[in-house]
Design brief:
Helix content of chain A: 55-70%
Oligomer: homodimer
Radius of gyration of chain A: 25 Å
Strand content of chain A: 5-15%
Distance between the termini of chain A: 45 Å
Largest interface: A-B, 80 and 78 residues
Number of strands of chain A: 4
Number of helices of chain A: 10
Structural class of chain A: mainly alpha
Strand order of the largest sheet of chain A: 1-2
Shape of chain A: elongated
Order of helices and strands of chain A: EEHHHEEHHHHHHH
Chain lengths: 296, 296
DNA sequence: CCGCCTTAGTGGTCATACCTTTGAAAGCTT
DNA sequence: AAGCTTTCAAAGGTATGACCACTAAGGCGG
């Protein structure tokens, strides 16, 4: 472990000038590193932080952890050192360290389990971005469901286009299974919805672009909340299944244009269906899928 | 403002049982809050929040703040009560409250300024999502620049398609100005880059879909870091400007298909140019544009 | 050999104290 | 009186220390 300490004198405006101890450490390998590669100190390899307010120690912690991730010292599934140790290692207090960890946990990078430890989130299949930030954004700025649908449509059109060119035979087989599942649950809307989602996620995986997949999931998870409220009123599931089959066929036949068009038509139709169902319920058109996670 | 307090007794396992004060308030401008009729179908298909652990007080705080935002009690630009007061109000300690605030700050919803207060982030123009989470994700899972480019291309194609149908004359005029700026700075790559970005953002604004805009900005801010490193080697800016003009013309003439195709060609060409420049530099193809999210 | 129980270890929370920054009010200078 | 400087309270940032709750692994007894 390399420790580097640097004294910076910060002039205070008031008469009382104070010497500020500003120490930051770098460790190249998380626990194992013998070499003491003291480089120059004023080297502000710290620019990862907001330039306007680069003083807060808490953000320094975040920067450090990010650096470790960027370097590859922390990889998905890894466990971080105990907070007390890590705090000492970084030269900050535990609450400060915890703030940083919480921040990283909020964006879905870290995950803490009481009694067990803090872990770098591991990718269950495809990496996913936290949808809460988008959800909050939707509430703050009053995004409409229509806007969400449009975004989803744009993403899924691109995804299905790509998937048509890249899907493996396994993935195509999975799609077929999900469609079979849809037809089998035409009279069970909730079950149908599950197969529907799985189908779309399979396409996303087949697109080979994990970024688009993550973005799609982010939006889909919000729309799902909206959709779940009216799913019991769903009808015309058969028609929906047919459209899914059209998408499937286009992908199987490696026809990107047709896949994109089919997806466009499918989502347009799905949106209209959703709106008509909402109207029936008298529900609003607000996109705030209230996160409804209350402690039982 | 109506405050409602609810005491819940939580039995402790150890000999020493403690009465845990768990109070949550419901704010409402009007007393219109009746029953929250939510049918908790335990569908854990989606992981908005980790289903395993939803009891932590810190997350309770986050839920509270989110609730306030969803309800509209907190609006962009608003200032939160002082931490000490808010902590008492919510019935938690200050460190716990701070954890929640930090988490919300990490996703770009709140912003704290020392000595001033904590504010709900206000949208300067279009709301933007924090790119850091995506950046970390890129590092963790080794996203390639090509993958990023592809995602950007998909988004911008959709955006330009929409923009062709919705751009106002003002927006079109702005686009024209930026293109003029590009031609004027053909010999100044950095300046050119700025006009380039503004042009794309203008199109995004013209698309009328703030979600797609936010997603595009998220990806663009990462690619920007990559691009800045090689921008000084840029050449063929004239060709690039021509392609921008083609996009502009398509939008002005309300031709969505052509706008989309023009954008596709432009970004394909931009990616190839970028790659050839990178190759010259000998730079890697990693998508980890470390840090540097500039505020402007 | 298996299962229950104990026990260290780790994250979660709280309380308190002090420092730094901010912004506005009060006071001084011109 | 206008403008600048000083001062001070308020607010966020950090540190310390303690205790609780949960997890997992190891020891004990059946």
């Amino acid at each position: 472990m390399i420790k580097m300490r640097c004294l910076v004198r910060v002039p205070n405006r008031g008469g009382a000038e104070a010497l500020k101890l500003f120490c930051f450490r770098l460790w190249s390998d998380i626990f194992s590193d013998g070499t003491n590669g003291m480089t120059d100190l004023n080297n502000d390899l710290f620019k990862s932080i907001d330039p306007a307010r680069r003083g807060t120690t808490s953000e320094g912690v975040i920067a450090q952890l990010r650096e470790m991730i960027h370097r590859g010292d922390l990889r998905p599934g890894d466990r971080l050192p105990p907070e007390r140790d890590l705090a000492k290692l970084l030269g900050v207090s535990r609450p400060t360290l915890r703030s940083g960890i919480h921040s990283l946990a909020a964006v879905g990078i870290l995950q803490s389990r009481q009694g067990a430890g803090t872990f770098v989130v591991k990718s269950d299949g495809s990496p996913s971005l936290d949808a809460n930030s988008l959800r909050l954004m939707a509430s703050l700025h009053g995004f409409t469901t229509a806007e969400m649908f449009e975004a989803r449509q744009a993403l899924e059109m691109a995804i299905s286009y790509l998937a048509a060119g890249r899907a493996t035979s396994d993935q195509i087989a999975t799609m077929a299974e999900e469609i079979t599942g849809m037809y089998a649950s035409l009279d069970d809307p909730e079950q149908y919805l599950i197969h529907d989602m799985h189908f779309h996620q399979t396409i996303a995986a087949a697109s080979g672009n994990r970024i688009l997949t993550a973005l799609m999931n982010m939006i889909a998870s919000i729309l799902l909340d909206v959709r779940r409220k009216t799913v019991h009123r769903s009808r015309d599931l058969k028609e929906s299944a047919e459209m899914h089959r059209r998408i499937y066929r286009a992908i199987r036949e490696r026809n990107p244009e047709e896949a994109r068009n089919a997806m466009r038509d499918h989502l347009t139709s799905a949106q209209m269906a959703q709106e008509s169902e909402e109207e029936e319920e008298g529900g609003p058109t607000d996109a705030t899928g209230n996160g409804n996670h209350d402690p039982d």
